[in-house]
Structure formats: C-alpha cells, structure tokens
Amino acid sequence: MLKMIDVLEQNLVQNFTHSLNTPTSQFDELLNQGILNASESALQKAVVSFFNREDAIESAQALDISAERIQALQTGVALKDDRYLADTAKIVALCLALETDTLNQLDISDCLQDFPV
Hints:
By secondary structure, this protein is mostly helical. It has helices at residues 4-7, 10-21, 25-37, 40-51, 56-62, 67-75, 85-99.
C-alpha cells in the first residue's frame, strides 16, 4: 500500500502538522502544487489505497464530496483535473492526517465527534 507521505514532497509533509494548526491559503496553494507535482501513477495508487479502506466512502462524504465525485476519484483518472483538484486535496489532507497521526493532536469540537475519521 502506497502512502501519501511517500507521494508528496518531503517539505510539504513536514509542514503539514504546522499548517493544520495555523491554516492559511498559502498552504492550500502548496498542497495543490504538491498534488500537481506528484507522480500521476503514485498519486493514483495512494488514492485508490485510501478508497480500499472500509470507511473510505463515509469519510469522503464527511468531507463534503458528492457521490459522483467520489466515484470519479475512486477511478483515479482525473485527480489533477481542475474540476476534481479540491476534492483530491481533501482526500490527500485526510490521508496525511491519518498517516502522521495528526488527528489525535487536533482539538475537535464535540458536535463533530460522530463524523467518521
């Protein structure tokens, strides 16, 4: 199983935890650029690996990704396409959070505790 931390540039991965604590539009741009610079095949494998998880569909829906877009992302064909880049970024960020165990470090509001992660 290919991990997202292996797909993206090391600098992006290293700054990920810090960026969650101080979100900026600059990090969004950095994340999008990291996705665009990533190997197409490696990115596809990592996203497909994510969707092989038992709770992947629920997690993607919790990220406010429509069923149609989830289906497109599952195929891994248009991950870098402008129409899907924002959704790809959501999946990439979730994968990074899971792989770096960052979710345990975040203060998640009680009203969001029941969302699948």
